[in-house]
Design a protein that fits this description.
The chain has 371 residues and is an alpha+beta fold. The protein has three domains: 109 residues, Sandwich (Immunoglobulin-like); 112 residues, no CATH class; 129 residues, 3-Layer(aba) Sandwich (Glutaredoxin), CATH 3.40.30. It contains twelve helices and 15 strands. The strands form four sheets. A five-stranded mixed sheet has the order 13-12-11-14-15, with helices on one face. Strand 5 and strand 6 form a beta hairpin. Helix 4 runs antiparallel to helix 5, helix 5 packs across helix 8 and helix 6 runs antiparallel to helix 8. It starts with a helix and ends with a helix. 29% of the residues are buried.
Length: 371
Amino acid sequence: MKKLYLIVSMFILFLACNNEPSYKITGRISSDSMNGKTVYLENLLWYVKMSDLKTFDSAVIKDGKFEFRGKTDSSYMAVLSVDDQTFTSIFVENGDIKLDIPESINQSIATGTRLNDLSKQYSEDIDRVRNKMTEFMEYANSQEPTAELQREINEKYTALQQEMLQISIKFLEENPGTLLSAYILASGVIPMGGSEETVKNAYDKLEKNVKDGAFGNIILKELNRMKNKEITIGEMYRDMTMKTPEGKDISLSDYVGKGKYVLIDFWASWCGPCRSENPNVVALYKEYKNRDFEIVGVSLDEDREAWIKGIKDDGITWPQMSDLREWDSEATVKYSIRGIPFTVLLDKAGKVIDVNLRGAKLKDRLKTLMP
């Protein structure tokens, strides 16, 4: 009887152990070209410099398949990469996660668990707007560059960005609280200009473990930043001291209030829209720099060499400053900056006369000030 009891107890223990929540990630690849290569399950936070841990696991592709198994107490975001070149993001959570990969792993989308299925739905909605943006830019690139075309590009870009913002807000309202919600808040809603009320309402609904995680901390920092009043027309500029690319301390007050109109240009070498706008600003600087006009560039770079290279490649000749702290920069707090490019135009005494001008709008405004 004791022997039978022991066998039954061991069997029950075996079933309990095997019923513990776990995940299985299965990839199936259409092409044979990736056979023998290694797939890495990596930490997304390592890629954004928020963790020193890069790799969780690895698997070799065999017969067009690979697999990861494990268990997790809470969901997290990871990256699947091959040869450090192609990658896709994935939510790791207990359950059966599948990836059907056409040719390259960066073409795949994970499905099979709640967060991955929701992420697929959200990506499809956003991609529809991104496709509109791509089609419009292809059209714009085929046209002769004019001030009217630049104005049309700016208006279209703003409208499509607002469309993506509304998709994100609606998605958060319908799917609150999750790690995916936090990711969309941090990477979509905040950079696209979501209001403090929208961000706070979504943040308040996050699960506690999500609030305590990396994305929750990012959102909380942004909420604290939003409490700073946005700079408005009519107020005086807010002084800052940072370093030039050569390491010299300079302040905005070195240039502001000296009898010139001053444009404070917030940008970064990694910011695509900033780099696209730079040729326009370079041309305006050449036209107005000898007519009571100055620009001070404030970079949100973190990599000093990339910042210097961006200055050189874009032909920037006006003064530059940065504390090399990216979104933790003093500039983002003082000026409540939530997206770049961003500009503040000051009169000759240092009072704000316009904000967020670029393209044809900036050109037209300078023309009225210095006809």
